[in-house]
Description:
Helices cover 28% and strands 30% of the residues. By secondary structure, the chain is of the alpha/beta class.
Amino acid sequence: MTWFHEKLYEHHAQRLSIDTTLYHWRTEFQDVLIFENAIFGKVLVLDGVVQLTELDNHIYHEMIAHVPMAAHGSARHVLIIGGGDGGTLKEVLKHPVERVTLVELDGEVIDLSRRYLPKVSDGAFADPRANVLVMDGTRYIAETQEKFDVIIIDSTDPIGPGEPLFTAAFYRACRTRLRPGGMIVVQSGAPFFQPKELETVCGRLAASFAGVRPYLAPVPTYAGGMLALVAAGESRDALRPPVKVLRERFEQLQGQTRYYTPEVHRAAFTLAPSFEPASLRDDPMPVGFLKTGS
């Protein structure tokens, strides 16, 4: 049996059996591997790191998309930076949006995802509300005059092609492209293994946004089984509305989610001990302790 070994971290690795290799080649920007696994189905790997699987990608995509969309409540124009597999695009388009702009650096990832992982996007790229651009996300943010209600940074980890999307300057530029009441969400890796990275992302966002809150999504194929995302906007409370408000907004999805619910939305912001970045705590506490109110 052939095995894929992921070694994103120095002292930890995971491996998945490769039952069938569907594609393996290098694009202009990164190494792409797509294979089938008996448990997780088709698996997309970029530069040796698992990006998604057919079995559990919906958890990640629903949480990165519906949390800001439901928190905002009336987003009409949405920007996705990255997300070439189309999963986040699919979830955002479940809302009554007018336009979703997706900016992906590597056009081959879009083509390969549509060919080998069509269920992930499920026709989203053909939706007339979708505007897909193949270009550098940082350049797009610097050059566009468009304004958005929600910006979603659906990127790889802060290494290689994804590194410029994690800078304070980029977050500051994103802030200028948001309408009043606008929100941004970024992925921030595995908090068990990358606590410093989570702290850094929160700190850089806090330099441009008054409200910053990390939240969690359980994704089995990510190291430690838990992914950290960070939402930011004009206030912390706006990112986690009352459950009654979320339930009203959730009705428009008409049962189209498999993981996200208003209750999950609220619970995701209640972090386990040691996950709360020190810079976001309301009062000084030793590392490893968390005030669980609100």
